[in-house]
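Long-time lurker. I teach an intro course on protein structure, and each term I like to show students one example going from raw sequence to a predicted 3D structure in C-alpha cell notation. This year I'd like something fresh instead of my usual example. Would anyone be willing to generate the C-alpha cells for the chain below so I can use it in lecture? Attribution to the forum is fine with me.
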Amino acid sequence: MKKILVTGGCGYIGSHTLLDLIDNGYEVISVDNNSRSSTRLLEGVEKITGKKIKNYKVDLCDFDDTHAIFAENDDIAGIIHFAAYKAVGESVEKPLLYYHNNLISLINLLKCVDEYQIPYFVFSSSCTVYGSPANIPVTEETPKQPAESPYGYTKQVGEDMITEFAKTSKTQFVLLRYFNPAGAHPSGLLGEYPFDRPQNLTPVITQTAIGKIPQLTVFGSDYNTRDGSCLRDFVHVCDLAHAHTLALNQLVAKKNKTNVEVFNLGTGEGITVLEAIKAFERVAGVSLNYTIGPRRPGDIMAIYANNDKAIRELDWKPRYSLDDIMATAWQWEQNLYSDEKMFSSGNFKLN
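-- Reply from a regular --
Happy to contribute to a lecture. Here you go:
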C-alpha cells in the first residue's frame, strides 16, 4: 500500500477523501492544525472504516514542524493538499490572512516535496481561478480572468507556483479545480462542519432549516440568470473525494500526459441559488425562511463546468444528484443537531 499524506484531513473534503483512499487500498496519514476543523470528522472516518488514522496537529506555515512529518515518514508516496482557508467573503475582509496561510503552507510543502523527492502531488484548486469567465461552461483551457477575491487569487498563485516548480522537479502533479462541493456521506457520519457561521450555501440552508440560523439571505436578485440569483455547479463531496483517488491512480499508473495535469470537477450543470433552495424544500419537506439581499463582494454571477476531460481521462463521473446532495446534507445536519442536544444535556461528549 502506498502512503498518502492528506493535508487538512480533518476538514470537509479532506475527511471524505481519507475515506475514499482507504476504501481503495491506500494507507493514509493526516495533518491538520484544527484551527478550523475538528477531530470529529476524523472519528467519523474511523467509525466507517474501522481504521485508526494518525493526525499530526501541525501548522503547515511552520516549516520546521512540517519538515518533521516528512522526517518521520520517509515512505510518503504522495500528497493531497487541501489545507487552506476557503471563505470568499472573509478573504475580501482579511486578504493578508489568506495570502499568508494559503501560500506559505504550499511553499513549505513544496520544499519538503523537493527534499524528499515525493513522486505524486494532488492540489486542491478551485473554479475561482477562472474569475468571471466570458463564456460558460468553462473548460480547462478557458482563459483565467482576474480573481474576484483574495481566496481565488491564492488558488491562481498556487497553481502558478506548482507549474513553475514542476519545470525542474521529478514530481508529477494534478490540479483539481472544484466547483461547489456540497452534501455529506450517506452514512450520516461525515459532512460539512462549520465552526463559525457557514459561508457555503448548503450548510446555510440546512442550519436555517434546523433553526440554528434564523433567516437565510440570498445575495443578489438582479443577476442575468434564470431567476436573478447566482448560478453555480453543485457537486457531491463523495464524488469529489473519489476524483482524488482516481487522480492518484492515474499518477501511479503513469498515465498522465504531462507532469502538471488540470481537471475540472463539476457536474456540468448550472443551478441557481433559488433553485437549490427549492430542491432542498422539496427533498426535506421543510419551508425555508429566506430573504433577498444585496450582492456579496467576491461573488461572480455564473459558472459551471465542462467536465469532459475528467470523464475521459480519469474515468470519473458524478454519481450523486442535486436531490442526493440535499438529502445527505439534511441527514448530516439532523444528526449533528441530535448530538448537540445530547451534549448540552450533559449526556454526551462532543469532541
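Some talking points for your students: The chain has a mean pLDDT of 94. DSSP finds eleven helices and 13 strands in the chain.
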